[in-house]
């Protein structure tokens, strides 16, 4: 029996078993209601409303404290002796690597195809709102993180939900928090294995095959797929063994590189078509408010834009606080401010650059997708670049590889923290997970398991329901932490001795686990 027949049989068997479950779960999580002639998924509304609430609650912190956030990333407010494993910049790039990926390339193309150019405007708005949500959840992640005896750190919703709810609501809050923590861990683990690992490897392999001669090319065979899977698994395994320090060291180089390559290519297309820029911007703004637009007019453009942005930047899903919790700081809100830059980079910058490139280049495949003649996706983006750079598919392949590897690494770290919360934190437990996760990377180039990936998406967004309820209940804690950090900043800027005045309660709880 050939490798192809084995993998095909596994795909079919798994899909046949899980397809009814995935459909049932998807119908619940992504339940939509008709609004203005189009469908609004309630989970997207849930995420957007959270962004609105937290933007108001914290006085548009994402705008007022943007400059301060940049200064924190630069290390201006670093403190000696801070507990943690990585600096602010490394924590940011590790988290960004988990959100910046194929959704920024293919997802945006789908958005401007269904919602028209106006969807770009609403993606930007949703990204700006998501900055406030990200600030809240990451501040809580650092506030309630655990520092283990060996100096490593664990954080995320599986920690701040039980600890924070217990602190505010006593025994009942503690019991509820423990249940929510187990559910959150299970959801993060499931998505990470299939969406954060298998899917990323599978799509990067597909792009590699497309530029090396297709199915009949050098990488199109089962042997080529196996080689690619083993190569990616080896890279992931080596880095993952080094923990968050190793992951942060790699992503702090990968993220700027992949973002730089991609944005540079976008700028080339935009500059070559500089005369078309004013018209493109005008079409984006007009399309955002034009009631005669596609997919239900203004509401259609708004919903599509919000949906793509919410799915891309993961604000409110509880995943990013896991990476940010490892930061070296005595003030949780300092990293919350750093984290608000994440949706800005992911959605406001990279997604917008993709959309602007497509609108300006106006490739034939985009017109076909808008007319309903094709689905579109990464092909539209590639074609847009191809109008100026015929050789761009090769550059796109490099970008996709960097996106995929960094995403797999970051989700590997997220999954390991979820795994150890469920099955215990020991050397054997961690090693078991790392081997298991690495083998999944090999399977990514051999299997598709699309049904499980669809189910993983639904599971991850179920986490948003649990997580955001916790964020609402714990928002007063975040307000206190923000005021504490702003007071520290004022004293530091005034040249006062801030080291001697640090309160002990700023330090995370240390455990002996």
Task: Explain briefly what this protein structure is.
This protein has 513 residues and is an all-alpha fold. It contains 20 helices and five strands.
Would you write up a description of this structure?
It is a single chain. Helix 2 (42-57) packs parallel to helix 20 (450-493), helix 7 (118-143) packs across helix 11 and helix 15 crosses helix 17 (378-386). With 513 residues, this protein is an all-alpha fold. The protein contains 20 helices and 5 strands. The strands form 2 sheets. It has a 3-stranded mixed sheet with strand order 4-3-5, with no helix packed on it. A two-stranded antiparallel sheet has the order 1-2. 55% of the residues are buried. The longest helix is centred in the middle third of the chain and has 54 residues, at 157-210. Strand 1 (32-35) and strand 2 form a beta hairpin. It has a single domain (22-491), classed as Amino acid/polyamine transporter I (Up-down Bundle).
User: For the CA atoms, what is the radius of gyration?
Assistant: 22 Å
Q: Return the CATH class.
A: Mainly Alpha
Fraction in beta strands: under 5%
Overall pLDDT confidence: 82
Structural class by SSE content: mainly alpha
Tally of alpha and pi helices: 20
* End-to-end CA span: 47 Å
Helix content: over 70%
What is the strand tally? Answer: 5
Under CATH, the homologous superfamily reads Amino acid/polyamine transporter I
> Do you know the CATH architecture?
Up-down Bundle
The spatial strand order of the largest sheet comes to 4-3-5
Q: What letter string, H or E per element, gives the SSE order?
A: HEEHHHHHHEEHHHHHHHHHHHHHE
